[in-house]
Write a structure and sequence with these properties.
5-stranded antiparallel β-sheet; alpha+beta; extended
Amino acid sequence: MADLSDIMKAAKRVLAGLGVVSATAIGVCGSAQAEKIENPVAVFSGLDKITGRIISFDVYIGETVQFGALQVTPQVCHTRPQTESPLTTGFVQVDEITLNNEVRRIFSGWMYAASPGLHAVEHPVYDIWLTNCKLASTVPPPEDYAGPPIQGAVAEGEDPLAGPDDGIDGGPGVPRKKPFQG
């Protein structure tokens, strides 16, 4: 039969091993937490249910933009580096302007671009959801902007997160005819 001191020593070794594993897990989680990119621009899509039109619009952090009877104010917008799995999150506040010209908060919380159906603002006339976060926008920042630093201006139609130009002009090119086979 095993001696009690042997059992205690084995238990200490197991617990010491678990401590190393948990410390490693904490270190990994901590470094993943530090990998968030704080973006100055949140990109939203809004649906007007009466006209059926979907509009995409950029909003700087801390700026309030009106979409129909709703006022949208993103407080933070985070993404991950391209080397990690995508996760776009934003803390957003949405107010409704009532028919009596009163402002009423209808949403204050986190939106996740990966699951817009779960974390969108659903209103009888308008729906709003987060689609992306960007480092720059074609829309100029407000004069009193004090959010995360803007990474330069973006030309119309360009993606600020895209990599460098590969030197190939004109995109995929024109398709060629099949060679004659006789």
